[in-house]
Amino acid sequence: WSFYTVNHLDTVPPFMNRIAHQGYIAGIVTMAYLLYRYVLMLIYQESDTVISVPKCVHAFLIATFLGVLFLPIRYISHPVSNYSMGPMAYLAYISIIVYISLIAYQIYRHRIKLLYKTKLAITISFGVTSLCLIYQAIYPYSLISGIGFTIITLAFYLTIENPDATLVELLKEEKIKSDAANRAKSAFLANTSHEIRTPINTILGMNEMILRENDNEAIEEYA
């Protein structure tokens, strides 16, 4: 909707154009915040580390939404494609940079506890998103910021949330547990066999001595 309105400045009323861009930028900010919360959830699932969202992050989110409501925005006409600039657009860039920085900090802090697959998916997806943001900052008429979030969503789904990938991970974990149980069973049987065999051989040896050397018929019968 915002792409359409910004490229039809002559026919779309200014208030509708502003509402469209407010919704778009608010959606980007919300997406960035939710991705930050999602990464915190992944860290909790894989390391049992509870990470609460700092109050300053919530305050920043509220301030960002207020900025989306009240900050000005201007529209630039370009032969390739029109685009929006101004404080509201800059606020979207700043918020995304803040959340990516927070995610990078948490990943670095808990890198030892996270699975390699999780770290790789997050690193690649947010790396590509950062490149998209840099490219759009240099060429603002390219309008590819949304592609970055699409890549993040696909990367997380295909590598972390995909049911098949999750099933493979569960099968690997169950195989590891099964192998460990088999090793424990083999070790138990080996130890138990040794512990039983030794006293039985002792008893049989003593009984053989009784049968060979005893003269008492009753004892020999017992033996």
Summary of the model, kept short:
The chain is an all-alpha fold and 223 residues long. It is 78% helix and 3% strand. It is rod-shaped, with a radius of gyration of 34 Å.
Total E-strand runs: 2
Class of secondary structure makeup: mainly alpha
Strand order in space, largest sheet: 1-2
Give a quick account of the main beta sheet: strands, pairing sense, barrel closure: 2 strands, antiparallel
Proportion in β-strands: under 5%
Distance between the termini: 99 Å
Task: Provide tags for this entry.
two-stranded antiparallel sheet; mainly alpha; 78% helix; 223 residues
Describe this structure in words.
The structure is a single chain. The chain is mainly α and 223 residues long. The protein is built from 8 helices and 2 strands, in the order H-H-H-E-E-H-H-H-H-H. It has helices at residues 2-6, 14-47, 55-70, 87-109, 116-138, 145-161, 163-213, 217-222; strands spanning 74-76, 83-85. Strand 1 (74-76) and strand 2 form a beta hairpin. Helix 3 packs antiparallel against helix 4 (87-109), helix 4 (87-109) packs antiparallel against helix 5 and helix 5 (116-138) packs antiparallel against helix 6. The protein is rod-shaped and about 125 Å long.
